[in-house]
Amino acid sequence: MRLQDKSFELFIPEKKIQAAIRRVAGEINRDYHDRNPLFVGVLNGAFMFAADLMKNMAIPCEITFVRVQSYAGTQRSGQVKTLIGLEHDIRQRHVILLEDIVDSGFTVQHIQQQLQSANPASIEVATLLFKPEALAVPTTLRYVGIRIPNQFVVGYGLDYNGQGRNLRDIYQLKDTSSR
Ligand code: IMP
Ligand code: MG
After folding, report:
1. Which residues form the catalytic set?
2. Which residues lie across from 6 on neighbouring strands?
3. CA-CA distance, 80 to 71, in Å (whole number)?
4. Residue 22 CA: distances (Å) to CA of 17, 66, 145
5. What is the pLDDT of residues 92-143, one digit of tens each?
6. Binding-site residues, ligand 1, Cβ < 6 A
7. Torsional sign, CA 38, 64, 112, 140
8. Fewest CB within 10 angstroms: 23, 99, 132, 176, which?
9. Ligand 2 centre and the CA of 179: distance in Å?
């Protein structure tokens, strides 16, 4: 599979993605049955995960979306990210942040810190994908769909230069150096 200048190969098929989402949804249904959780999806990447997770929720719940804006800092890993688009009042709410992928953990950390200042009752994170080897900041991920090695992936909401979000399966970058 090709996107612009890069080749990708199938990595996680749709069935496996959906099974992981059903498992995570089951855990949230159990843990939050009496809490009316407010899901906060992080655009753009988490839109597909958010949609499929919501279809598997069987308890009262709500959803809203935010976006992060990156400002290039002096260091590549030290980007400052500003949360935009939070219109929902999250005071006293049990918030579950929905992410497509946690890589270094900086994005989730920044969003959690900014949401915390709005005084929610609790904040937990549900991420579809997690790259444990890439984690650079301490982060507590309550719900993880699938752990993956430290490799670039696309599909199911995740993009390469804006392309590939539409794919139902997840693909990984082909290692061209070895062929
Ligand atoms: P972090 O702040 O390093 O945890 O990065 C999280 C963000 O980087 C995600 O929300 C994605 O938008 C992006 N990202 C990290 N790894 C990948 C990947 O393998 N493919 C596509 N996007 C990625
Ligand atoms: Mg993202």
Report:
1. 103
2. 3
3. 5
4. 9, 23, 9
5. 999 999 999 999 999 999 999 999 999 999 999 999 999 999 999 999 999 9
6. 45, 99-107, 152-154, 158
7. positive
8. 176
9. 30
For residue 93, give both structure tokens: 């709410």
State pLDDT tens for residues 56-95: 999 999 999 999 887 655 445 556 678 888 888 899 999 9
**Residue minimizing CA distance to atom 22 of ligand 1:** 158
Predicted confidence band of residue 179 (pLDDT cuts 50, 70, 90): very low
pLDDT mean over 151-160: 97
* Nearest atom in ligand 1 to 100's CA: 10
Q: What sign results for the dihedral spanned by CA atoms 75, 77, 78, 82? A: positive
What confidence score (pLDDT) does residue 85 get?
84
Residue 81 alpha carbon, nearest atom of ligand 1? 2
* Rounded distance from Cα 126 to ligand 2 centre (Å): 13
